[in-house]
Amino acid sequence: MPDVADRAYRQYDPDVLRRLQAAELEVLKAFDGICRELGLRYFVHYGALIGALRHGGPIPWDDDIDVAMPRKDFSAFVAYCDEHPEMAWGYMDPAHHPDCANTVPIFYRKGTIFAEDDIGWQPGISIDIFPFDHVPDDEREREREIRRADVLRRLLYLCYRDPRIPLEGWRYHAAKALCRAARGGIALLRVRGADVFRYFESKNRQADQRNACSAQMTTFFDIDPRKNLLSPDQFEGPDLPFAGTTIRGPKDPDRLLRPVYGDYMRIPPEEERVNHCPAHLDFGDGLGDVLR
Predict the structure, then answer these.
(1) Closest CA relative to residue 237, chosen from 219, 257, 223
(2) Strand pairing of 89-92 and 239-242?
(3) Residues with Cβ < 8 Å from 277, sequence gap 6 or more?
């Protein structure tokens, strides 16, 4: 989602962007194939869902794909990936690799690189997976769960990098300084991102189990879980056409997208567009970093 002071949008070479979108589509197709084989539920979300509805494929300038999964299905998917290390694809999170700074779990193509300068581990071309957990139907109890998760999510992020801050002017610089001071304290106390991630996920799983009969789900990995509240039947949606293939969509896309994006069928002007152009991009074809 777009930030103000640190809005991330860089123009790609058109051929590089087309190759990247095609490579990400292959990752999505591999993910979809595993889910269909195992009977696991998911749907494409955020910009990828907008792309499916508005463009019949990726948003023309976009360079990432997000999917949503119920916790039970997500756990089964991770277990499958762990049991099949021979695959050309892999699952990754900070608990799986001590230097992984992707605070959202990813499914990636092995042998590729899609990395920022400030990340130690070099993640591959991937899709992001957002696990959705059951949360209390009672608003007050649900807010307590969200605030608990928010503290841990922010701590996890600070273990790896300076955050993008949606402020301007002196407020932006003051918040940036506070975040860097917090990062210094984290380093001094030797707080490990992998340990924070494990604790964060253990609490998320407990919330899902504790509220298994509720009619509300959300993802604690999003910056605002309140805007991601959905009913479990959203995971019973139809297939959607997407760039020559079919992927799974939610039951009621408008109910998911409108609270976050407003009129999501409107094509935004360039100054409102967001992408995630990396510092290093290697398609694993022996030609090396195409951005160097």
Answers:
(1) 257
(2) unpaired
(3) 8, 9, 10, 11, 12, 63
Contact 130, 102 (CB under 8 A): no
Cβ count near 102 (within 10 Å) = 19
- How far apart are the C-alpha atoms of 219 and 227, rounded to whole Å? 10
**What percentage of the chain reaches a pLDDT higher than 70?**
87
Nearest to 32 by CA among 249, 232, 257, 234: 249
The pLDDT tens digits for 17-48 are 999 999 999 999 999 999 999 999 999 999 99
Model confidence, pTM: 0.89
pLDDT for the residue numbered 23 = 97
Quickly tell me which residue has 């509300």 as its tokens. Answer: 216
The predicted structure's pLDDT at residue 132: 98
CB atoms within 10 A of CB 266: 10
